[in-house]
Amino acid sequence: MRPLNELRLRPGLPTGPSHAPVTVSLVAGTALGGRIYDATQDYTAMWWAAVVLGLLAALIHLPIREQPGPLALAEAS
């Protein structure tokens, strides 16, 4: 096993400020789901909220067009 000072973060490793909103939303979604269930004794409202938020996320991401950057193009040549 390598010592801690030799460990490097990999680009795909979810850490730091870019992962913080994901963690916050997971906690908030779970808490909100629990409150909705406690109030209504039913998960239907939370399921529909999840469906609507998923469709909204898909619509927001539709205009994104990913293209390889200069480094990826340089490595491919």
Q: What's the topology here?
A:
Layout: H1 20-40, H2 44-61, H3 70-76
Describe this structure in words.
This protein has 77 residues and is mainly α. It has a domain at 22-58. It is 60% helix and 0% strand. It has helices at 20-40, 44-61, 70-76. It is elongated. The two termini are 36 Å apart. The model has no long low-confidence stretch (mean pLDDT 83).
Q: Tell me the helix content.
A: 55-70%
SS class:
mainly alpha
Q: Quickly count the helices.
A: 3
Q: Radius of gyration, rounded?
A: 20 Å
Which labels suit this protein?
elongated, 77 residues, 3 helices, mainly alpha
Structure, briefly:
Helices cover 60% and strands 0% of the residues. By secondary structure, the chain is mostly helical.
